[in-house]
Design goal:
The chain is of the alpha/beta class and 192 residues long. The chain is 38% helix and 17% strand. The chain has one domain (22-188): Flavodoxin domain (Rossmann fold, 3-Layer(aba) Sandwich). The protein has 6 helices and 6 strands. Strands 1, 2, 3, 4, 5 and 6 form a 6-stranded parallel beta sheet that branches.
Length: 192
């Protein structure tokens, strides 16, 4: 009886440790192995930035905005024309800054707008620049109705040795009211 009680007590302590260490630990890992989290995003209109900030508030870790050396036009129509031309030429826009200590992150939330059915070409540059082997990638995107398009498949091709969890997508018009949807999604993928 005493052994059963001790086993039950140890199980309860372990369960509480896993629940309460999320900011320091990844629930799927062991409590002794803290996982370092990065929320990285590329945003043109501000929608993806807003989603990234909401995710960061909930999961902690670090946050980093990807920018390009040659910024996209502020005008929406001109921006879409540049984005389409980049995609057609398979361009790799140069990033303005490197992510500090990218190799140290275990879990990387990656946010972007869906441009022409996939990632902006700057994200192709990002994924080709860093080694994602053994990392967990969690995509999130904003869009005008096309959801993820083929972006998750493109991430998988660019990072074949990473684990990719189910992502979050929302239309640009719903970003302001997406808080509950983000919380539900984080719960669904096992992030309290």
């Amino acid at each position: 009886m005493k052994g059963t009680l001790l086993t039950a007590l140890a199980s309860v302590i372990l369960a509480f440790s896993l629940v309460f260490c999320w900011g320091e630990c990844w629930a799927a890992g062991s409590a002794e192995e803290p996982k370092k989290i990065l929320v990285v995003y590329f945003s043109h209109s501000g929608n993806t930035r807003e989603v990234a900030e909401r995710i960061h508030e909930k999961v902690g870790g670090d946050i980093f905005a990807l920018t390009v050396k040659n910024p996209y036009p502020a005008d929406y129509k001109k921006c879409t024309e540049v984005a389409k031309a980049e995609q057609q030429s398979n361009a790799r826009p140069q990033l303005a800054e490197d992510v500090p200590n990218m190799a140290s992150y275990d879990v990387v939330f990656v946010g972007y707008p869906n441009w022409w059915g996939t990632l902006p070409m700057a994200l192709f540059t990002f994924f080709e620049k860093y080694d994602f082997s053994g990392k967990t990638i969690i995509p999130f995107c904003t869009h005008g109705g096309s959801r993820f398009g083929r972006s998750v498949q493109d991430i998988a091709k660019l990072s074949p040795k990473a684990t990719i969890l189910d992502g979050f997508e929302t239309s640009g018009s719903r970003v302001k009211n997406s808080q509950n949807d983000i919380l539900a999604w984080l719960g669904k993928i096992g992030i309290p």
